[in-house]
Amino acid sequence: MGIVVIGAVFVDIKGFPDDAYIPDGRNVGRIEYIHGGVCRNVAEDIANVELRPTFISIVDNSALGADVLKKLNNHRVDTRFIQKIPSGMGTWLAVFDNHGDLAGSISQRSDMMPIMKILEENGDEIFSQADSIVVQADMHKDLMKKVFALADKYKKKIFAIVSNMSIAVERRDLLQKVDCFVCNQLEAGMLFADDYSEKEPAELCEILAERVMLGKIPAMIVTMGGKGSVYADMKGNKGFCPARQVMVKDTTGAGDAFFAGVTIGLTYGKTLAEATQIGTNLAASVITSSENVCPRFLPRELGLDMDPIE
């Protein structure tokens, strides 16, 4: 089943100004509707590296939900375990400034608990055949416990990403069970109750190395936008990976693509440093377009010693 991704589907409504963005004024521009959601993006990113992930999620039982499934199937994501229910998808409303950076957003979450039925009925089949597991760390705690129980039963690696850190902060103990957790600089500050907004990579790297040891977090990566990312694990490995210098068009989905690259690397034998570089490459490919996901790659283009999964 390749990498199994468990999380929500969103519809992203994105606004782009035609000229300089005025925060407290009316801005003329364009509005786009795009399939989104952290884990939906991650599943499609993994599929675009020809690795055939399985996605466990929920969509609306509507034309829009059918459109989401059609696109995922076209990218060869395994969608057998996606349920169709009323109001199954969340919504993310975002406004960007004239530099392509996020100026503000509001999200409406969907109820993910129907996934529990999928895990109860098909969890053993799914987890026993998975190469690794991706989980959205801010899902309902009972869902999280079920995922971790199945992963432990079948000795599968778990990689965690978050869409709402304020919820994930309440589950710090679960981070001790993941093989790698990825978040951005602001989210790391929320997690560790500190302000890292002015930290430079070298300083944040040392802080992170200490924090993963104290918190018993197996491995963690913190992205820092245009400055790159830092990583550390409990084995004493730590370092900095610079961002690639590219023309920024839209930063939406870059963090998800970064996470997908890290997950791919760590699932298929790369070191933490090498996986961080793969994530950096995928993130760079996203921010140069208005798409939420990366373009097509072959595994060997990213340094993986494997052919596409059929």
From TrEMBL:
The keyword Transferase applies. Pfam families: PfkB (PF00294). Residues 3-290 form the Carbohydrate kinase PfkB domain. The keyword Transferase applies. PROSITE patterns: PFKB_KINASES_2. SUPFAM superfamilies: Ribokinase-like. GO terms for molecular function: kinase activity. Transmembrane segments: none annotated. Keywords: Kinase, Transferase. Signal peptide: none annotated. This is PfkB family carbohydrate kinase. The lineage of its organism: Bacteria, Bacillati, Bacillota, Clostridia, Lachnospirales.
